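Hi again,

Forgot to attach this to my earlier email, sorry! This is the prediction with iron/sulfur cluster bound. I've pasted everything inline since the attachment limit keeps bouncing my files.
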Amino acid sequence: MPDKPILVPILGDQLTRDLASLRGRTKDDTVILMMEVWDEATYVKHHKQKIALIFSAMRHFAAELEDAGWTVDYVKLTGKDNSGNFTGEVARAIERHVPRAVHVVEASEWRVQQAIEEWPDKFDCEVEILPDDRFLCSHSEFEEWAEGRKHLTMEYFYREMRKKTGLLMNDDGKPVGGEWNLDKENRQPPKGEMDAPERPKFEPDEITKEVIELVEDKFGDHFGSLERFEWPVTRDEAEQAADAFFAERIEKFGPYQDAMVHGQDDLYHSMLSTSINLGLLDPLELCQRAEQAYKDGKAPLNSVEGFIRQIIGWREYIRGFYWHFMPDLESRNALNAQRALPEFYWTGETDMRCMADCIRSTHENAHAHHIQRLMVLGNFSLLAGINPRDVQDWYLAVYADAFDWVEMPNVVGMILYADGGKLATKPYAASGNYINKMSDYCKECTYSVSKKTGEGACPFNPLYWHFMDRNRNRLESNHRIGRIYSTWDRMGEDKQRDYLESAEKFLDTLTPASKEWARYED
Ligand code: FAD
Ligand code: DLZ
Ligand code: SF4
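Structure tokens for the complex follow:
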């Protein structure tokens, strides 16, 4: 080990060779510290695949660094005297290595960053906290953009990011194709048998197998199955996954972005979020590859623009939004939603075929695609008035790509409108019609999507009006939604009563989930 080195802690979602804290460092003067810690693995009861993915990717990354000649001090979960948290492990590493300074890249999550900010006072050596420049928009750039704006509309942020990166921009400063956003071309319902090619699946190697055993042993009661662990766990594998997406699926990614098909879990989605979030893939490089696919005539503009928008638009915006509104965001509940999360979110036991299929995919793959998260699971959570804390815990626990910074704005802002309309201009509320139009779920469902009320009616139908009615005071003045109340008023009292009673009857059947699914007891 080097004498008085620089200690570089690398967190589980910082698995990038070009990380700011490694850039410019020399191998003979640096000790890299990586820590598997109990507190991170248990602050919610993460899906088993999520823990296995993070530990396996961390172990592979440490091995790659060592092969490249770096000194890595890797603390395993079961390592002797593991203190169970980042601060405790950095303290122990300082004792072991007596570094002259600690260089760490800021955490992506508020909770962890709070702990890191205490390090300069806690430790008897210099601590330098570096910005995470893997994101394209810095905290100060986002603040500058947000300053003085009443609405933080993603679309305007996205245009700035297009200009900044030059992606899909003409020399005259106008967007390629003349329009910034081609979303209206990206809403095709599924057509017949969808022929989406299978994404590459990665067989667990020895490192992953060992981690899977560890997870079964220590976290056996967490939600999720480990039977199909197929995630890329190294940069090489993640690149193979990206290659396959750009070669085989990006062409139809755009048009079928919002489509849902029973049992077809990936469709044309990239399935790259875990690799991007862990740092195995660079978001800008992916967007440049997408742009190249367009230039080479291999993918249409609506697919490429749609993909780029998700990354430099939504992903960057969501991260900026999180830091702008934290820590208050976590406790926002603008619609005063108080219902407990229903048990079926964990068991999948429901007759609603759409919900059951999304929960099955979540259980099997630690993944569901965006429109399933938004318009099925999210829409139900909104309409049923489930409290934002329970919903946040669920989404944070069950998806392999879930980190506070990205899960929370999507849940609190996008699906629940619990931020009072800071992120979305209106709630994404929809009746069964939407799901029927965009999926093949309804045709074999126990419920009838065309039935509006009473026995056998699709629950989304009465729940939609129940939601509108109970939130009238909060939503009526919203010009994007106000017209809906004229339809409601024209229905007449009998019909309205039918809707409200049907909804109440359905809500009464929901069994609240035990809190132990999501969290350990204190
Ligand atoms: P694709 O459909 O191929 O999209 C490409 C990429 O765009 C994704 O990999 C992702 O990096 C980015 N992206 C797309 N939409 C969003 C978005 N709304 N916010 C941020 N990035 C986006 N994504 C996460 O990475 N982690 C989460 O914890 C997470 N929680 C979500 C919770 C809810 C309620 C909703 C509605 C969405 C959430 N998303 C989250 C966003 C999105 O659903 C996933 O990024 C996407 O499903 C991942 O699959 P994919 O890689 O195939 O994405
Ligand atoms: C999610 C997670 C888990 C399960 N375990 C670890 C871990 O043991 N060590 C680690 O460095 N990171 C882990 N993570 C990710 C962290 O919870 C957190 O999301 C990141 O540090 C970013 O703040
Ligand atoms: Fe879902 Fe309703 Fe369709 Fe059944 S009928 S699949 S509950 S939208």
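The first strand starts at residue 6 and ends at 9. The pocket of DLZ (ligand 2) is lined by residues 11-13, 35-37, 40-41, 46, 51, 54, 107-109, 112, 403 (CB under 6 Å).

That should be everything now.

G.
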